[in-house]
Amino acid sequence: MIMRMILNDLLNLFYPRLCLVCQTPLVKGEDHICLLCSNHLPYTYFTDMKDNRVSRLFQGKVPFVAATALFYFLQKGSSQKLVHSLKYHGNKKLGYELGRLAVTAYRESGLFDTVDLLLPVPLHPKRMKQRGYNQSEWIARGIQSVTGIAIDTSSLSRIKRTESQTRKQRSERHKNVEGIFHPSNADALKNKHVLLLDDVITTGSTIGACAEAIKDIPGIRISILGITVV
Ligand SMILES: [Zn+2]
Fold first, then answer.
1. How confident is the model over 140-164, as a mean pLDDT?
2. Run of H or E including 94
3. Could you tell me the pTM of the whole model?
4. Ligand 1 is a single-atom ion; what residues have CB below 5 A from it?
5. What are the Cα distances from residue 54, in Å, to 14, 72, 98, 132, 195?
């Protein structure tokens, strides 16, 4: 134990862990993000779960209980750096931390109080193989570590692979995701309040397609949480 602590300190001396946002070396007790950057993350502070930038994307399209996001996604800003690290640099443990931050930010709102299942937006199996993990599942694990809510990664499947959404126009994005998700175990979602989770919500077309795929399951209630909203 002591040897390992000494080894960690030595490793940190020669290969310091850096803040993902400002690149300064992290000190003990800091993970992924330094304290200064943590204090300046672009929190949305949405308190109305029915009327905010995220919920407005789904109003009149899919029925939902609550919809929100933790941070604004700012181009070249801290939240973009975090999402890139989570998605493209193999930093799955950051997803865990972001999930925990989401619980801290939304515990008071009651967002997690009635949720039965956490439902990370599924990746296509091929993409999953490429990346080695589903970033949204790691966000779910962080939420679970605090709330104890179960994670369901098998009842909703991605049946089609889509081209990247980033270069598409808004109208194209909706077409691009039509029918790509399928409830592989509708029974497991019956009469459940599920919380759909994704890292980035842009037009809401991807997470909206998930909601669309499960909205007719008897007794289901759907809530939506993004780590960032563009
Ligand atoms: Zn920093």
1. 91
2. helix 92-106
3. 0.89
4. 19, 21-22, 34, 37
5. 43, 10, 18, 29, 14
